[in-house]
Amino acid sequence: MATVADALPPAYAPEADAIEAGRRLFAHEARFMLGCVSIAQLPPPDVPEIAFAGRSNVGKSSLVNALTGRKTLARTSNTPGRTQEINFFELDERLRLVDMPGYGFAKAPRTAVEGWTELIRDYIRGRAMLRLVCLLIDARHGPKESDRALMELMDQAGVAYQTVLTKSDKPKARELDRIDAMLAQAVAKRAAAAPRAIRTSAVKGQGLDILRARLADIALPG
User: Can you give the pTM of this predicted structure?
Assistant: First the structure.
């Protein structure tokens, strides 16, 4: 019997050597560089950057920690809106991971939310070394209007993005397939988007090796 998953585009399946390259890169120590509240504070654009974007409380900081094997590299919280600046982490001087503030609902003053939302837009539109945005989507809920608005911005800016389902250990298998199919449909006609999401769980470790391989392909040779 055909399932929802059967109708999806092929999932990204890196070769064993790509998995190993990702493992080696992320085995290096990642270090916090700086947090920025304005474009003027951004570090020199001399290393490829991969940004993590998504709604507030989608799990950006948790995913950065899980990828790097560090529990406290990026500060996590159950309170939406805790990350209020763009945080840069350097990995082996070959790649920068960029943890961006969440958008959508946040327990913060409206003016603050508007300020960091505009900072996200300016960074995406004008950052020369931004090679990929990982657009994180909660696997329990699927894409929201605010996610689609960011997709539109990245399409207009010509910035490549990879959708990533977070908390994929939470839904039942059939529901996860349904959300995955919904997301694939949302990006089907978007030229800047990868055709299929990578399913991850920061808690269970699901999909981290696949995502590491995807990101390592962007790093400077080493």
Answer: 0.89
**d(C-alpha 190, C-alpha 167), whole Å:** 24
Burial bucket for residue 23 (CB in 10 Å: 0-12, 13-18, 19+): middle
Amino acid at the residue 103: Y
- The CATH number that applies at residue 146 is 3.40.50.300
Q: Is residue 187 situated within a structural domain?
A: yes
Q: Is 84 helix (H, G, I), strand (E, B) or coil?
A: coil
Give the pLDDT of the chain (222 residues) as one tens digit per residue: 555 666 788 889 999 999 999 999 999 999 999 998 888 999 999 999 999 999 988 999 899 999 998 876 765 434 333 456 889 999 999 999 999 888 754 454 455 556 557 888 899 998 999 999 999 999 999 999 989 999 999 999 999 999 999 999 999 999 999 999 999 999 999 999 999 999 999 999 999 999 999 999 999 997
**Does some domain include residue 146?**
yes
* Domain that residue 152 falls in: 29-216
